[in-house]
Amino acid sequence: MRTQVAIIGAGPAGLLLGQLLHRQGIETVILERRSADYVLGRIRAGVLERGTVELMARAGCDQRLRAEGLPHSGVNLCFGGQRHRIDLAGLTGGEQVTVYGQTEVTRDLMEARAAAGAPTVYEAGDVSLHDFDGPKPVVRYVKDGVAQSLHCDFIAGCDGFHGVSRQSVPERALEIFERAYPFGWLGLLADVPPVDDELIYVYHEDGFALCSMRSMTRSRYYLQCPADEKVGNWSDQRFWDALRSRLDPEAAERLTTGPALEKSVAPLRSFVAEPLRFGSLFLAGDAAHIVPPTGAKGLNLAAGDVRYLSEALIEFYGESSTAGLDAYSTKALARIWKAERFSWWMTSMLHHFPEQGGFGRKIQLAELEYLVSSRAASASLAENYVGLPY
Ligand code: FAS
Ligand code: PHB
In the annotation, is 370 catalytic? Predict the structure, then answer.
């Protein structure tokens, strides 16, 4: 089998790249380890930057997003029992974010790819990457017990943090930067109306909480929990009681509870692998970097990588130029590190760090007080939250 670009992974990064290239007549094959249903069953991100919405439009996949996505022009910080609104639009000349679940982004991209007849091999086993240090890379995999070889010009490693792509790179060729946090997020999804029209990020001595949503009838909530927490330790009631205790009185009063559709624990880490290119192999999305979800950057960063990589590949096939491909790693990493900084800063400010002591908590409260009382500080949060310009 032969194609122009072999894409490993049918998450948002792989599917978006495939769609953007397909629309320019560039052949791709996506190899995905799991089934389509399994991929759609993962509950993850919920907030899209304008740049990500624009990329979905470029991919011809923004119809449902425009119809069902919820534009948000503000976000709330809650601490000391008081809520403070950050006027995202007012502080950024009208920029907004759109609340639209990653599951829906993935579904829209999957449906577009199927409608275009572009090949995706689901449940592709034992994927391995070969000869990507030269111009004739090969991807090998097993499908229905039969070994296959996919010859291509380029490999896009979009297979996430635990994928095979980054792990195929010789260790001496990679530099890893990472920080693990001493806590995780316990997430709950429920068909109940959100506690507020906008998101609420909560700093509380018992731990961080986040009130988000997927629609005006489906809510997504998170609680800071120990990194090794077991979901089984949390009944729905225990979750709702803990969330209510961390909210300001008005929100606590208004909170609507109901049975969990999904509950899961996600570890938090900051991680970047450099560089992002190895001959004809390019890393994009979680395969290259991880951010703690506090800044709502994970999915948006993946989209940013795909924007740069798709433009570079389109330039190569259209103009026989390698300028974009040669610049990809440096260009993408410049944006990645700014999002890593913002995500680390939001996480450091809003979470309870057991070992930080009284001084650390005072600094966090001073940071929050400064943030909500200084236009300059609020504007800095706002321009990062809506997404820095490409
Ligand atoms: P993904 O991990 O989404 O997709 C990679 C794909 O590659 C998967 O489908 C996987 O099955 C496949 N794959 C892996 N190994 C393979 C192999 N060997 N062969 C073939 N296929 C292989 N971001 C936010 O902004 N907000 C959040 O609230 C948030 N919550 C998250 C919660 C969890 C539990 C996790 C893990 C991440 C969360 N993220 C969040 C980040 C997340 O949204 C990612 O940024 C986003 O999924 C990145 O997309 P991809 O790079 O496509 O990686
Ligand atoms: C979500 O809705 O899942 C969500 C929103 C904002 C975040 C993290 C997660 O920062």
Answer: no
**One-letter amino acid for residue 103 of the chain:** T
The continuous run of DSSP H or E covering 260 comes out as strand 260-274
CB of 216 within 8 A of CB of 194? yes
| List 22, 263, 297, 351, catalytic entry | 297
The verdict on whether 293 is a catalytic residue reads yes
Amino acid identity at 379:
A
Cβ partners under 8 Å of residue 119, min gap 6: 28, 29, 30
Residue-range domain boundaries for the chain: 5-74+93-177+269-346, 182-264+353-386
Q: Centre a 10 Å sphere on the Cβ of residue 259 and count the other Cβ atoms it contains.
A: 9
Band of the pLDDT at 289, cuts 50, 70, 90? very high
Residue 82: both structure tokens together: 């008081």
Q: pLDDT-based confidence at 43, cuts 50/70/90?
A: confident
Q: How far is the CA of 212 from the centre of ligand 2 (A)?
A: 6
> pLDDT, tens digit, for every residue of 70-114?
999 999 999 999 999 999 999 999 999 999 999 999 999 999 999
Interacting residues of 304 by C-beta distance below 8 A, sequence separation 6+: 51, 52, 332, 335, 336, 339, 390
Q: Quick one: pLDDT at residue 354?
A: 84
Residues facing 31 on adjacent strands: 8, 121
Fold match between domain 5-74+93-177+269-346 and domain 182-264+353-386: no
Q: What is the CATH architecture assignment of 5-74+93-177+269-346?
A: 3-Layer(bba) Sandwich (3.50)
Tokens of 361: 């908590």
Ligand 2 neighbourhood includes 384 CB (under 6 angstroms): no
**Gap between the Cα atoms of 79 and 237, Å rounded:** 23
Active site residue 72: yes
Query: Quick check: bond before 137 cis, omega within 30?
Result: no
Q: Give the CATH architecture of domain 182-264+353-386.
A: 2-Layer Sandwich (3.30)
* Inter-CA distances, 329 with 236, 246, 276, 300, 332, Å: 44, 41, 5, 17, 5
